[in-house]
Amino acid sequence: LGEYDSASMDQLLRRRTAHALRLMVEYERERMLRDGSRGGGGGKGKGKKGRKQNNGDAPSNEPRRRVDLWMKYVLCFEMLEMEMELHLVEQVWQTVKEMTSEIADSSEDMPDQRKEESGIVRQLPKMAWEDIGSLLCRVLLSDAPTMRKLGLYRFLNGHTGVDVTAPTATSADDAAAAAIVSEEDKAFMRQPQSKGGIKKTSGGALTQVRPAPLSCISVAFVLDVILRAYDSIISTKVGINMQIDEGGHQISASIADLLGEFISNYTMTLAKLDGARLSEFVNKVFGPELIKSHKSRSVVLFYNSVASALDTIASNDASLLDIDPVNIQSTIRSMRATFSSGGAPKVLQHKLKLDLALVLKNSIPWKKVDTSIVLQVLALYPPEELADETEEHSQSKARDAVGSWLLGLGDGKWVKNAASACASAFVLGQLMPFSVMDIMMSGVNTAEREIGMAICILCSLSGAGSELLWPAVFKGLSSQVSGAVSSTPGFCKANRSMILLEFGCKEGVLSGMGNGDLVMDNSKQYMMPPPPHIETLLSNAVQFILSQVMSLSTILFETNGGSDTTGGSTRSSTSNSTSSYVAILIGQLRVLHLAYPSSALLSEAVDRMLQDCVNNLANIGSESSTHVVKYLTLSYAALSCGAAFTGDGKLMRLISTCHTVLGVELSLPPGIKKEAKQACRSIFQYARWGSLSLIVPKIVEEAEAHSAEVEDVYQTILDSARESVDATPIIALPPLFDCAIGAGRHIVKFDGQETPLLLSLQNIIETLFAVLEEETSSSNWTYMLNKMCQLIFSGKLLLDEYQLSHANDSRGPMPIMQAFEKLLHIGGTTKPHIYKTVVSQISVAWLGPEQPEGDVGLCAIPYREHIVDLLVWKECRWDENAGKEDSNEKWDVLPEATDNSSITRGFVLSFLSNLPSLGDISDVVLKELIYFVIRKLIDIVGTKPDRAKAFITGSEEYARTTRAWQALCLLSRFVTEDIAEDVAAKVFLAMSFNLHGPLRYFIEVFTIQCTRKHPSIFGNMYIQEVSRTDPSLQHVSSLMIIGGNMTVGRYSSDFFNSSTDPKIKDVLCGVLPWLSSTQGFSRAIAQLLCHKLIPLVVDVNDNAYSGSEVKDDAVLCSVYSFLENNPDMSRLRKKQQLFFDTYDVDSVCSLEGLLSIPVDEGEEANPMHMVDAIKDCLTEVYKEAHNEDAPIWKQMEDLLLEADVVKQPDASNDVTGDVQNETELVNFQRKILPIDALDLGLKSFQEQKLFNAAGKKKQHLIVCASLVDKVPNLAGLARTCEIFSARTLVMPNLLVKKQDDFKSISASANDWIDMEECKEDDLLSWLYKKRSEGYSIVGLEQTASSKCLTKMEFPEKTVLLLGKEKEGIPIEFLSAVDQCIEIPQLGIIRSLNVHVSGAISIWEYTKQMMQKKKIS
Questions:
Q1: How many CB atoms lie within 10 A of CB 918?
Q2: Under a CB-based contact definition with an 8 Å cutoff, are residues 1336 and 1291 in contact?
Q3: pLDDT value at residue 442
Q4: DSSP assigned state of 286
């Protein structure tokens, strides 16, 4: 068995099981017939009286009903098992719905029926949800993603017979009463899906298909099947957007929206009916396995749906949910593991944590509380100071939910008691051990800091945080403690108290900002200093932190051992962890400064320390490396606490300090370990750039005007930053970047600096890119990218770059454009978040600085090529593991409904929409930018599809063309007379192409807008086109739609100047012949146009007949009279007129209109084409006309049909009556052999592929059509390959299978044969690969050595290589061919069609193989 893969074993088991089930069903049917002939089941001789007596007992037709039901099951299973194709699967849903309805009806059976009928149906049980679920698994867990997506759509829409809606508030008795239908009502009840409108049971009686309740679905099915199916299609090519044809209309739907609604309804159903199942479901959803084994987006969807439903339920009813604490603990661990591994972007992390908080809020409070689990929960929700902007809203909502949950724990008083006890126990070391080794090896004990943070949150949410935390803080910091890193009890207590003080301040419960510790002096209007005991504690805390900083550098320099090794990386885990520990200490000082800004002791101490450290650094020697690190770190600490220089000459002192910090060097003594050496360098760089990041803003504040000294220090900072990037630890890169940004911002701010602006920009950009290349943290990288874009993509800088390097034909350096191009290159095709960030910034800068409106858009001219590319650019699908990407970020400038694949181009469209209108925009911008973009887009849409076939939906060409037309619609307001004639010619040419409906929609909208602006140019071109005699039906439909809008719609006044406009006659002459069009749609609009135009040309009230003489106008008057008076024409005209009156192309051509259009499965705009809308009008008119013409006889016919059915002899007791055959049982046509006709032996998946759908073994013939480019030829070859059972058809592009002409010619052959894609570029290597597999390559080509087909003896394993239509097989491929063959010709034409040639050769191969088989 080890030789066979799991897929083969699964298929074998399924088929054997289905075969066994079929045998059981057939046995029961035969046994019923046999027993019935003996009189065991009630004979035919019983009359109505007997039937009436039996009807009082258990239904006697139940045996046959059940047997027929299971036969339906077998037939559906065989259909799904054997024909995994969408068009075949689509046939089974009605039958599945009928089987599912049996679950709903089974509740009405008598309790003792199982026992009574055990002798009648010995082996077949009643059908249950598990049986239906296993059938649905064949679709939902199919190997084909498209099949899974279709199954999800059908199931979530209730097409499988399950009522997926939420339960209503009606009682169970009301629901039961509503379900009762009288026999008289049933007799005339229609089932639209059934043949003849009537659904019969196996006994011949009418029945109503009733959906099964949502509660019948098991929890396991939802989580193991539905969730798994959805999870498997995320981030795949099939996507989660659904486009499906329903009743002739394209329906757009999101599988995510449908699933979210289903989960919410399912949760509410369980809450109303079964509290135990609800608890089971929620515990599994919020269990560890779900988050570990599924993608983050799937988990977020389930979390959010369940949490929202529970929140809705809780607002009306009491909580019924019992959450297992141990389960929550495991879930939190799984969450942390997922977050730390980068498996979920930030935005998804926030959603997961919020939903967990909502579920806890709506659960039954724990009576026995595990404190450690509560603290782990609270650690997920850090103080708001630690939350980024995207988390702010969800953080606040989650905190409220967690607070409500906490207040209900235990007896309701647990929170305050536990908070105080936890704080004290934490300081005393009773919750977590802490040692010096943890500090030195990992930088900081993260677990202990998280517990301290959680305790502070617990105290804060209890409502009395200050009074609960202060006693614990005083336990460790009431007196001065040596900050030397050690494991002594005093140090450990002080360190833990410092953690509580830090997070207590971040929570806002220990700070002096209005929490009772500091007060305002109303008379002097300033904040008074903290009380003496608080000042003392703060002083002790600061001294404790500073002493750790000093002792840390000393410890590192005293770490001797080993030789001085200069090699190795400049970064290591030790250096980074040491820097992290220093960063924690500096952060604590900063928190204290922000929390207690009025502390006099703190301010005086840090000011004095800063002055001393700077003086010591200025006078220190290079040999005192220990002091360099210490003083530099203390300077950073002092600056973090708000230390400042006082007195005169403050600016020069700041500049001098900058030079001092930049000038100090680190010279390490020999003899210290490599790890210690790297840690010293790390701390040195971190303290240096941290100090500078705080000094630079102070220089900005003091430097009111530009000076050489200020510029010099900024340039020095940039040069030093670029040189120090490689040696700077990861944690110090953000402050280094901030220094570079700050210096760069103020270098470009000043005019008249000594260094040219563009050269300065070049230096700044190079420095910033150097930092970006070294940064590894996704959040820091994103922060840096945003800051960099904000700096360099400003309207003023872009305008300066344009004027210095682009205007007046000057072509100097353009550093901003080079940076823009480099960032787009970094984004590539896999990082759309970079594109979004960059384009969102520069698209605003393209508008320029605030200036006179005439120059708006001037600085975008150099980027016009990029603008065209971005307008047709399409983001890649969202990457599940892209931690840097914010998948659901909202952009204020874009409409709410903007699809994710259109965000980037949306910014460019927004830029174009914000340009001034004609008359206000400058001529330079109009001619050099707008005209250029329009012409480029016209060239894109003017590309004719190959071989006159429509672009394949979802292809790159289709996407580019669609987006180009959308951009043109937005730019239609800028089409002036200068370019109108050229644009009109190309637009009407593109209109003649074979295009899909969405493309035609945008062509028509653009043409209508341009025709309104330029009626003479576009109007004359329109008249020429509509007067043609050779346009295609698609072309005519577009012309009719445009004519309808311009003639009878709201825009007729824009097209016709007056009732005497000469264009009226021209349009009428062009439209009139289309009254006889073979296309009903074109005829309908032509009728509408003629009805409007004829009265403008002739007097329809004048008598056109004068005696025996007929006037020239009689023909037009006669046509008008018919159109005016015919009721069908009148009815149709009213509906069409309403459509054209309400159609608004102005809204479509706006930014909101274009980006709010629904998208298809390929994430391209998919508007409802006008053709479809007007076709609906035609359909409605047809129905209305027929309903009015024949309502009575039609109803009578239906009534007689139903009455005839009702009067049929009741066969409900007759188990020996005619048993329905398989075709009558199901609502689909079976085209397959039953499973028992197949070989049920053990075969591998590869072996099973050797047989076709008819069970015949495939031939060892591979037809290679990689050089064939015409779709009809490929379709014909597919049909030939299926008929002669070729193994594989190789094609250049498998997407051609979706084209309508391929489907019509191939006659569904593509559904039955294996196809493989091999492009021409890969063909040579593919041929050699097949030769290595034992195939002989036979080329169909006329060469000097080619054999006649009739003399060729084909090897069994043959690859038949077909050539191009005219050129044949290129010479480079002939080297891989073993033998060329040619077909003998008796005529004068040089060659046969490639499909015909291939078919003849395939038949010759088949004939030889059949002869060999016959001989053997």
A1: 13
A2: no
A3: 40
A4: T
* Confidence (pLDDT) at 750: 62
d(CA 458, CA 468): 10
Residue recorded with tokens 């025996």: 1108
Rama region for 1297: left / alpha / beta (φ>0; ψ in -120 to 50; rest): alpha
Answer yes or no: are the C-beta atoms of 1226 and 71 closer than 8 Å.
no
Count of beta carbons in the 10 Å neighbourhood of residue 131: 18
Please state, as a whole number, how many other Cβ atoms lie within 10 Å of the Cβ of residue 671: 14
Mean pLDDT by 10 residues, the chain (1416 residues): 64 82 86 66 41 43 81 84 66 85 58 42 75 88 84 90 75 41 35 37 49 88 92 80 68 86 91 83 88 86 88 70 84 82 74 87 85 89 61 73 86 82 88 44 66 89 81 86 70 88 86 51 60 84 83 64 42 62 84 82 81 83 69 85 78 86 79 74 84 85 72 83 79 82 76 60 83 76 85 85 73 83 85 87 88 74 93 71 46 79 90 90 90 94 77 82 93 92 92 87 92 89 89 86 83 71 82 83 83 83 60 80 84 77 84 86 76 63 53 49 44 46 60 44 46 70 91 90 90 80 76 85 91 92 87 93 87 89 82 89 92 79
Task: Count CB-CB contacts under 10 A for residue 186.
Answer: 14
Say if residues 905 and 873 touch (Cβ distance below 8 Å): yes
* pLDDT the model gives residue 171: 43
What are 102's two structure tokens? 């049996």
Q: At what angle do helices 977-991 and 1033-1047 cross, to 10 degrees?
A: 140
What DSSP line would sit under 608-637, residue for residue?
Answer: HHHHHHHHHHHH--TT-HHHHHHHHHHHHH
| Whole-prediction pTM | 0.69
- What DSSP assignment string belongs to 45-104? T--HHHHHHHHTSS-TTHHHHHHHHHHHHHHHHHHHHH---HHHHTTSHHHHHHHHHHHH
Other Cβ atoms less than 10 A from the Cβ of 839: the count is 29
For residues 4 and 1243, what is the distance between their CA atoms, to the nearest angstrom? 8
Half-sphere exposure of 481 (CA within 13 A, CB side): 28
- Residue 445 near residue 492, CB atoms below 8 Å: no
* Cβ within 8 Å of residue 884, ≥6 positions away: 345, 778, 781, 782, 831, 833
* CA atoms in the 13 A half-sphere facing the CB of 425: 13
95 CA to centre of own chain = 33
**Pairwise CA distance, residues 238 & 148, whole Å:** 10
Question: Which amino acid, 1108?
Answer: S
Place of tokens 């930088």: 443
Look up residue 1134 and give its amino acid. Answer: K
Q: Positive or negative, the Cα torsion across 385, 387, 389, 391?
A: negative
Are 306 and 267 within 8 A, CB to CB?
yes
Write out the H or E segment, with its range, that includes residue 1317: strand 1314-1317
Question: How many CB atoms are located within 10 Å of the residue 851 CB?
Answer: 13
Contact yes or no for 992/1024 (Cβ under 8 A): no
> Could you give the CA distance from residue 784 to residue 725 in angstroms, rounded to a whole number?
14
Name residue, tokens 């969450």: 335
Pairing of strands 1336-1340, 1358-1361: parallel
Tokens coding 236: 């795949």
Q: Which residues of 944-970 are buried (b: 16+ CB within 10 A; e: fewer)?
A: ebeeebbbbbbeeebbbbbbbbbbbbb
Phi and psi, residue 1265, nearest 5°: -115, 35
CB burial class (10 A; 0-12, 13-18, 19+) of residue 990?
buried
Give the H or E element holding residue 446: helix 446-462
Task: List the structure tokens of 999.
Answer: 């493309």
Q: Which residues pair with 279 in a beta bridge?
A: none
What distances in angstroms separate CA 401 from CA 195, 286, 1287, one per listed residue?
A: 55, 16, 62
Query: Which bin fits 612, alpha (ψ -120 to 50), beta or left (φ > 0)?
Result: alpha
